[in-house]
Amino acid sequence: MNAVIDRLRRTTDTVVGEDDLRERLDSGRPLRIKYGVDCTAPDLHLGHAVNLWMMRQLQDLGHRVVFLLGDLTTRVGDPTGRSETRPVLTPAQIDANAASFLDQVSLVLRTDADVFEVRRNSEWYDVMPVAELLGLFAQVTQAQLMSRDMFRERVAAGREIAVHELVYPVLQGYDSCAMESDLTIVGSDQLFNEQLGRHFQQRLGAPPQVVLTTTITPGIDGRAKQSKSLNNYIGLTDSPRDKFGKLMSIPDSLVEPYARVYTELPLDDVAALGDAASTGGPAARDAKLRLAAAVVTRYHGAGAARTELAAFRRTFTDRAVPEDIPELAVPASVRTVLDLLRAINPSASNSSLRRLISQGAVTVDGIRCQDPAAPVDLTTPTVVRSGPRAWHRVVGEPPRRHR
Amino acid sequence: MNAVIDRLRRTTDTVVGEDDLRERLDSGRPLRIKYGVDCTAPDLHLGHAVNLWMMRQLQDLGHRVVFLLGDLTTRVGDPTGRSETRPVLTPAQIDANAASFLDQVSLVLRTDADVFEVRRNSEWYDVMPVAELLGLFAQVTQAQLMSRDMFRERVAAGREIAVHELVYPVLQGYDSCAMESDLTIVGSDQLFNEQLGRHFQQRLGAPPQVVLTTTITPGIDGRAKQSKSLNNYIGLTDSPRDKFGKLMSIPDSLVEPYARVYTELPLDDVAALGDAASTGGPAARDAKLRLAAAVVTRYHGAGAARTELAAFRRTFTDRAVPEDIPELAVPASVRTVLDLLRAINPSASNSSLRRLISQGAVTVDGIRCQDPAAPVDLTTPTVVRSGPRAWHRVVGEPPRRHR
Description:
Two copies of one chain form a homodimer. The first copy, chain A, is of the alpha/beta class. Chain A is built from 19 helices and eleven strands. The first copy, chain A, has a six-stranded mixed beta sheet, sandwiched between helices. Chain A has a five-stranded mixed beta sheet with strand order 7-11-10-8-9, sandwiched between helices. In chain A, strand 2 (32-38), helix 3 and strand 3 form a beta-alpha-beta unit. Chain A is elongated and about 90 Å long.
């Protein structure tokens, strides 16, 4: 079973209950894997899919994913309108969101009845007497709930916490009891709530679920984690073309972590891609092409990846470039991106050119260049974009000979 | 209606919603008065009865007391055993406590169906979906609940608050909506919870209840408020004799507040009793006799009061005194309690005698004397007790004449 755990570990941040995991995998019994979601409009991205691929790996070994819709908690919403967490949804919206969720999830998970089951937490909360819920509350303290990072941050920021938000982790925790979860794989922001699940399972005499949290990688802008509101994510439902294009736009420094977490490339290859990316220029571009092809292969197959690779090359070396762009011959002394921009805009100040570069407005043969000192190779005609509508086909003049 | 309000004000500390109260009393509509209790074993004392007498006054005007048993909340109890608030009770215990509660309450309130109704909060909580409860939680913030004095004190003392305790005020508050409370009369420690009742009523579009809190008087030891654990209370079910005796034992300084809050003596009489009590000695004793008689009259009728008055005098001047106590003639120079003790115990030190007095071991004609300088009148034989078994019948010698 160590092989299974090792493979999971590639994308695992922390494991709570590793011995239990080992023991349960050894037992041969199909495990119940809790995959809990709230029922707001889903837009799963590569980050979410890390968890899904781990579950898929376990499905392939015969374990069962229990897809748990938190419809009860979603239905409650936030009537005060003061919270920033979740809006109120109608039952119809919840159903529509649930259907969409399943569509997206099925891009990764197997959804055959042997290894997949859909549940809603209203199944138990709709029939739970208030007294029983209060009995759960009696097993947790206010201080325990307030120790959650999110709450502490809110308090520190002077923002309010409504009481239904405060008790949300109790509900999410009890879900693990009700559905007899053996294991759950979540983002680290869910660790607190799922540990409450262990707490309740132990209190109620059930074996506590194992909690795996996954590595979180930054969004395609290299900064915060992927999120819809920052528009820095790669959606599972993005077309192969969009996935490919977004991956080509990531900072060089993300090639290695993305390849490790979002592909199944051998780890040696991952390291090599990281090394190549760190040298910048065409080597980095080629590393990104390989990464993008691997991700597209994973979701859409090798054929789609080949198509996108070809399309990308065509677009960014020929077609996407306007027909009638001016040609420009530049002296052989142009060695760097900054030299190149200076040759194109002789009247602009150095600082404005550097700003243009650092802002990401400059691409060389379709590759964004944000380092002014990065070397450029002008031995063949090179398409340079130095602003929204500023295109040039640049050719390096051969070095002058002394007469 | 001002007369009604003025009469209520005699024992009122704060009024939340005084204009509403005036308006509703003016409307002529019978008001619903919430009298909520938890179902732990009851032992109502004079302090609780202050609220009951205010309700009784309103019953006599045609308003209805809704006696609300918090059976749901009592049933939950505290399975963690870490709280100091309430133990878990069985349904049978709850029923027994409820019956005992009603017995005690009926010593003050009218219990005829026109003006009295018994409800249990399980009526609404047993059929409330969890989602609806969470909807209530959404209307309150964690900070609001934690602002309650009791919780702040617990946190300051490093003690834990279980979550069912934290949300208890929400349940108590919602009770006011469910039972359509117009008015509630509570101890000031309940003000927070009942204000949440107003909050929910307003949120749910109902007229908010008026909240009256009552003046709290100290226990018979003159210190903390009456409580069973301190054994410093006068129970409603105490016999007329016990009530009378306990009232005779209170510090002089409590005669005025007790007479104001625990009797319906005219306020001028209350002031006069207070003045008499402040002079100490026989005048204070007589003031206490009048107070004790008024309280016993209120609960047991004038006949019982006369009986107790006679019994008290008999006991503490004749009968309770052992048959064969020594007589002692003391010189006319004995003027104070300390003089008297010195005459009885010529070999004891002044400081030990003072200590005996201050500890309350000394009674003169059945009245405890704690002031060494209090005057004593020895013109008639006087029974002095200067310790558990130290009795003397003391007679003052006539002043010696010079020969």
